[in-house]
Amino acid sequence: MSAHGTPIPMTAARSGPLTGTADVPGDKSISHRSLILGAMAVGETRITGLLEGQDVLDTAKAMQAFGAEVTDHGGGEWSVQGVGVGGFAEPENVIDCGNSGTGVRLIMGAMATSPITATFTGDASLNKRPMARVTDPLALFGARAVGRTGGRLPMTIVGASDPVPVRYATPVPSAQVKSAVLLAGLNAPGDTVVIEREATRDHSERMLAGFGAQVQVEDSTQGRVITLTGQPELKPQTIVVPRDPSSAAFPVCAALIVEGSDVLVPNIGLNPTRAGLFTTLQEMGADLVFENMREEGGEPVADLRARFSPDLKGIEVPPGRAASMIDEYPILSVVAACATGQTVMRGVKELRVKESDRIDAMATGLRACGVEVEEGEDWWIVTGRGHGGVSGGALVQSHLDHRIAMSFLILGFAAKAPVSVDDGGPIATSFPIFEPLMTQLGARIDRT
Ligand code: S3P
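ok -> structure tokens follow
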């Protein structure tokens, strides 16, 4: 089933050269944070280029339920009239975060240090995902959580009426956990400290500083130490959301594996905590050129040009790079299938608790398409079939996971026989214009 309706089966077939410009949507991580921090500022935050995918729309609705005024002005222009740190009202109804782990975990953090109670739910995928990773540190602030067995949604959070600041070392590399703790720390007196062994995406730190909070980041022997001083007055911002490198990954990888392709993806965010895929692709022999490197709204941005790369080679992806490309392993495995040799991906246990178990979902679908995959709890190895060597001709399951659906459709553009997915509906959570954008570049996708 799709997240919000009946399944939408889709089929992708071998395609001619992909050419032209791919204007991918706004960054999902920055879009969620713009709405949440906008709701916690005093006054009006203006946002341009917001991702209008279902995940972010669900967060916009949630911010309204907590008392902020959120207005869609059309064309990606939004405004948020914030209620200030500690100003959230108690929602009158259950908060439905749909498919979005980022949405629910960040919002739980943002409300956990206010004396209000909220109940959260999501779709069948989100309601399977672990929430204790967030509710454990929120309990240290004084918040209480009651959910289903194994810390699953639906779940009620009773916010702390007398929150205390927290010092917390994240046990898993997760920007969602880090961000939930920092957002909770906003309404606790004194310094909240998060320590992460491996650097994860740092949009929360950058944006909190942009909104006027006092945030210090230091590298220590324990890892990155982030210190936030609680109870600031956040100042409303004007935010231009860069385009999402995780969405750019799909047309970029499609161009690399479809003969004769030459695609330009303008204005993509290239924050180093997000750009690991592009380094990996270059190490595999991809023809990628970064043009017009610049800084916009505190984030590095460039135009990325990707051309067909016939001699892609499998590599061992350094495990230390995993956090900076965690959402890109599904599409990387598709490129790996079209390369020669083995691509080895280790230190990626987190892939098992995303919108689906992404190692299992990709391994099963790739095998059905004639590609050899070995896997263990926190690793997998794809043996490439070389350019034009993937058989395809399979119907694969997307498991309510947008990135699994898009990855297999891209594989279909380069495989010998078409590749179908049982449900492309979830693509709308992060990349609602995926089909028209890919079609306009020359790809063949049908709703079947
Ligand atoms: C995100 C963090 C990542 C990523 C997700 C977006 C964020 O999850 O997979 O798509 O915006 O903070 P984890 O923090 O759980 O790794």
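The two ends are 15 Å apart (CA to CA).
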